[in-house]
Amino acid sequence: MSHLIDPKFRNLVESNLKEFNDIQATTDGRSAAVAVTIVDSGFGPMLSGMAQFEEWQESASLILTRRSSRLRNHAGQWSFPGGAVGGRRDPRTSSSQRDERRDRPRGF
Fold this sequence. Notes:
- By secondary structure, the chain is of the alpha+beta class.
- Helix content is 19%, strand content 19%.
- The protein is flat.
């Protein structure tokens, strides 16, 4: 498998994303970033109550993460992977960038 997503679809997404301007908004001096990750649907999300497939599905899906139920803010909510920029690590690198580099399939 050379690409997980059809190259035509990938080009369409890339060209549409180029139409957006980067916006940096802060309300309390903290910055955050998220990763919008598009992948094949595969066999489904393997979660109770969600569709499962017997054969690999090449349709596009988004990766979402579920926030811990123990968090003070937004507990249990679904969100794009990401988080605060900075902290003890390189302040120019967000957690979504670190996750994306770590989890990226080879060849991208």
